[in-house]
Design brief:
The structure is a homodimer. Chain A is built from 8 helices and 7 strands. Chain A is an alpha/beta fold. The radius of gyration of chain A is 17 Å and the shape is globular. Chain A starts with a helix and ends with a helix.
Chain lengths: 223, 223
């Protein structure tokens, strides 16, 4: 990379950080907890959101911002659960940026508890972009392999929690959940780790409770 | 993205294209077929290369350039099969570029048939970078889902062949191989499609035969 390229990237990241800070402040003032989901393509982000929609229904209100290179598919799946969702199609860009979230924010209803952002499927680039979230969750699905944390360290280092997904497939795979967890913890000590099967619903209540606690803390700090 | 950023990116891609053309010419003059493997993290690129090493042994000689953000793990796995392998760690960059391949090229033995490049696990960014390959293969593993081609079109549009991996997991998944294939073909008509289970070895011979035919064509064109 040339010096010119690096300085342009630094400008972009600094501008992004400012936009993210404004989003964090606005959502916090509205008492909304924002959660950024980050993973490889096909790790189960949308399926996890569908499962959370079922578990949170009647107790909490949620909304979802979907990021994809192309198609409205993920937003349509979320809307089918009766959840407000906005699709951002980046048209080629490999990650979401705070200014893209900023443009959608005025549409987000005031009376919600959780705003989920499903990032573009990519375990590398989205890790560098703060979207104004309060919690960043990285998903690792069992078929991807237990060797991924050390190979893609920035995503794990920048996360608040790791969600090991597709636990139902573990019996059919050379995947050791304890090894994946230990490696992630060696990169980010204190990382909260959840194991879920969104298709079967296993572990989703524990994750929902973690989000509910974080929401409580946000609202207590504001009060 | 600002105009300045776009022009810097265009400069980078133009410089990359020149370096790729030089690599293609050099490898072609040596009679070596170069194959660039591109996919999400954990789609089975390294396991496929291990399986190909077993199938090609005694008939063809191969070498592998491994791209990862961090760790030598993949190169070590390939070397354990008795195959020469070089690890490029990008230290954060989300894709390989032709100049990175260029630096390794002088180490590649003259007497090989296939040079495989395993790109950084990322279904987005590597699609924009020509590495001087003769064939580009995109891998899609069954757990990732049959909806991925339309969501990540550039990877499929730029590929010569699609390899549907982890076929052994299909019975446990909501994955329709015919749907994935049809969607990929709607993006890239004429795309060659292979279905493999590298762990069981299913379909790997057909893929090896496809590479052998391409090698024959390269050497006939040179003669």
């Amino acid at each position: 990379m040339t010096t010119k390229t690096i300085s342009v990237l630094q400008d972009l990241l600094a501008t992004n950080k400012q936009a993210a800070a404004a989003i964090r402040q606005e959502l916090s003032s509205r008492g909304i907890l924002c959660i950024n989901l980050l993973s490889s393509p096909g790790s189960g982000k949308t399926t996890l959101l569908e499962s959370l929609a079922d578990r949170l229904r009647g107790r909490y209100r949620m909304a979802v911002i979907e990021g994809d290179i192309e198609t409205e598919r993920d937003a349509e799946r979320i809307r089918a659960k009766g959840i407000p969702a906005w699709q951002i199609t980046t048209g080629g860009a490999c990650h979401l940026e705070a200014r893209m979230i900023g443009r959608v924010l005025s549409h987000v209803p005031a009376a919600i508890d959780f705003l989920f952002i499903e990032n573009v499927g990519n375990l590398v680039c989205p890790a560098s972009y703060d979207l104004g979230e309060d919690l960043r969750c990285v998903l690792l699905s069992s078929p991807e392999g237990d060797d991924k944390p050390a190979k893609y360290p920035q995503a794990f280092l920048s996360a608040d929690c790791l969600i090991l997904t597709k636990a139902d497939l573990v019996p059919y795979l050379p995947f050791d959940p304890a090894k994946a967890a230990a490696e992630a913890l060696s990169i980010k000590p204190g990382l909260r780790i959840f194991t879920v099967s969104a298709l079967r619903g296993d572990g989703v209540d524990e994750l929902a409770a973690y989000f509910a606690e974080a929401l409580e803390r946000l609202r207590s700090a504001r009060a």
